[in-house]
Amino acid sequence: NIAASVAVSVLRGTQEASVQGGNITADSISAKSMLNSANSNSSRASLITGSGALASVKANVAVAYGRSRSIAGIAADKLNVSGGKVQLLSTGNAGTLADISNQNFAALSAGVMTGYAYAQGIFEAYLKLDEGESLEADSVSVETIYTADATTELTPSAAGVSGALASIGANVAVSNASSDALARIYGGGSIKRSGLYGFFDDGERYA
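Given the sequence above, the corresponding structure tokens read:
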């Protein structure tokens, strides 16, 4: 008999690629922040039960919490790009997974199976031009592309509830994903360009 099985995973991460201050002259310039690009889940909590014998657990609890922040920006004192490209790109995955599963055909008796998954993300790309500052470039792009996902998976039996002797008092799954995205060009400066745009991951553009 086991009083409780608990898995908790917490990850807080910030990644920033930025240019701050200074007088910059270049053919082109870019700042890119790509957070968790190779992993859709920044935080994962898993419980695997079942050992071929009767398992009696009062509670199985899995909690996954992830808070991700990705920032790409340029705020130079003076920026001169002679006909090239200016690119600001902030991308990332803000995902969490809470997983409780019975991996074989053993009998499982649990009072409560509870999974909580919380995902928070902030994704920002910006270009700041101060009053009196002028930027000339072929194109200026400011992009924010991200995914946010919170998933809770509860599997009482490897073959489904009817495929094993599964006695569960209650199954509770809670998932919440909350993210903020911002792509902006601001300040009192001016831009001369052949193409100026900014967009979010839904494809909308503004100029």
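The mean pLDDT is 80. Try to locate this feature in the token string yourself.
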